[in-house]
Amino acid sequence: MVFLVPFDGSYLAEAALQRAAEYGEALDQDVIALSVVPDDEAYAIDVGWYERREEDPFTVQYVANKLREGVVDIAPRAEFRHERIDHGTPAAIATRIKAVADDLRPAVVFLGTDDIGEIARPVTSVAGGVAADATYDVHIVRYYAPPSIPDIRLGEGQYTEQEQ
């Protein structure tokens, strides 16, 4: 089983990756962070992936390396994968994420999004386009820190760390 996390370096993508890494460690599952990088300098500048500099010309690999560093900082055991596309539209990004998900067949896709309402509008939302696929579960992360969960009994004779 694998957990897939579309990762664009945003605050909530970081939260989704952190959550997937926690679940992956607890359940002994692999985590794959996937960055879809359009070959479009203006798009990379708009989303904060790149600042125009002569010493560092824009390339998809340059952006992918920056995103990989972010993944390693948050989830060192996660595998990083990037995909290049020509255009940075939400529909194109969602289509590529879904294609990778079709190949990987993840058990869960962890999506970081602060506007659950966007899920209903897949044409304008990467998250909505990915969440619409019924071949995998979707874990939506809307907050960086998970809500507080009271202690739970794990099974006969097993308790959370706080109860011992």
UniProtKB/TrEMBL annotation:
One Pfam family, short name: Usp
Recorded superkingdom: Archaea
Segments forming domain UspA: 3-142
Protein name per its UniProtKB record: Universal stress protein
Organism: Natronorubrum tibetense GA33
